[in-house]
TrEMBL record:
The lineage of its organism: Eukaryota, Metazoa, Chordata, Craniata, Vertebrata. It catalyses: [protein]-peptidylproline (omega=180) = [protein]-peptidylproline (omega=0). The keyword Isomerase applies. This is peptidylprolyl isomerase. GO terms for molecular function: peptidyl-prolyl cis-trans isomerase activity. The keyword Thylakoid does not apply.
């Protein structure tokens, strides 16, 4: 449980966000659903249904937040902290590191695992 960071494009490898620093990112967020079948007790997996729920790229404006200050979900606070400037990564956030059992009504269902394509553009 938590956040998994999978590099898509490496960054500079040396400039990492420090607590309280403003991160400038572009991102696309998608939903996943965990499928469990009682008919096939040996199978369980995840299916990306492809539903995009948010994207800074669609708005044409990067998103800014202060790292480690709980301005974003825990998966971002911990995941983006592991990224270096210029890096693009897939962040997979389990519900306990995202919106939990409540979800975000009308957008994110309860207990949803979220996948983000995040690019750390810069730090301020």
């Amino acid at each position: 449980m938590g956040v998994e960071v999978e590099t898509i494009t490496p960054g500079d490898g040396s400039t990492f966000p420090k607590k309280g620093q403003t991160c400038v990112v572009h991102y696309v967020g998608k939903l996943t659903q965990l499928l469990q079948s009682y008919l096939c007790s040996f199978f369980s997996g995840s299916l990306t249904d492809g539903r995009k729920f948010d994207s800074s790229r669609d708005r044409g404006k990067p998103f800014k937040f202060k790292i480690g200050k709980q301005e974003v979900i825990r998966g971002w606070d911990e995941g983006v902290a592991q990224m270096s400037v210029g890096q693009r990564a897939k962040l997979t956030c389990t519900p306990d590191f995202a919106y939990g059992s409540k979800g975000h009504p009308g957008i994110i269902p309860p207990n949803a695992t979220l996948i983000f394509d995040v690019e750390l553009i810069g730090l301020e």
